[in-house]
Amino acid sequence: MQVYLNVYHIAKLSKYTATVGMGIYHSTIEINNLEYSFGKGDEEGSGIYTIVAGTSNGLVLCERKLLGICDKTMYEIECILVELKKEFFSENYHLILRNCNHFAQAFAYSLLKTRVPRYINRLSDMTHCLTCILPPNIWNRFLDEKRPLLDNKSSCYS
């Protein structure tokens, strides 16, 4: 089976920031005309979801990349997803630390032992690095207050 990485622009601004390698992306893994992704749902449980390929909530598809040919059966793929659901549950979603791009990377690696292009999650990676520069109370206001990126005692220099 062919395995594709589908990359969508999340914001109109992303089309412009992508030219300097800092796009804001939503990514999915496509197998057999189904896209698998991860997000924060309204209910507890798995944040992994499946949609028909090409119906990603009106987002603009900016790239569809063939990652490889998977020799696994659908049963084996479902078993992989069961394992990933233990790690990617709805309450575990975090804009910087665990998002759809992290899931796409984990799923692609589980299927094909390959990585998604680094630019897909570059903004998240760079933002995470900045936590050493700005105080935690700034990050925690910007992000999800229920799941702060850092507690006020954490520091890169402690």
Mean pLDDT: 80
Number of helices: 5
User: In percent terms, what proportion of residues is strand?
Assistant: 15-25%
Q: How many β-strand runs?
A: 5
- Major sheet summary line: 5 strands, antiparallel
Structural class: alpha+beta
CATH class call: Alpha Beta
Helix content: 25-40%
Gyration radius (Cα, Å) is: 16 Å
Strand order of the largest sheet: 4-3-2-1-5
At CATH level 2, the architecture is Alpha-Beta Complex
Task: Indicate the overall shape.
Answer: globular
The structural domain count equals 1
How do the SSEs run, as a string of H and E? EHEEEEHHHH
Written account of the structure:
This protein is an alpha+beta fold. It has a single domain, classed as endopeptidase fold (from Nostoc punctiforme), CATH 3.90.1720. It is 29% helix and 22% strand. The chain contains five helices and five strands, in the order βαββββαααα. It has a five-stranded antiparallel sheet with strand order 4-3-2-1-5, covered by helices on one side. A hairpin with a 2-residue loop joins β2 and β3 (34-38). α2 (74-87) crosses α3 (100-112). The termini are far apart. It comes from Blepharisma stoltei.
Provide a quick synopsis of the model:
The chain has 158 residues and is of the alpha+beta class. Helix content is 29%, strand content 22%.
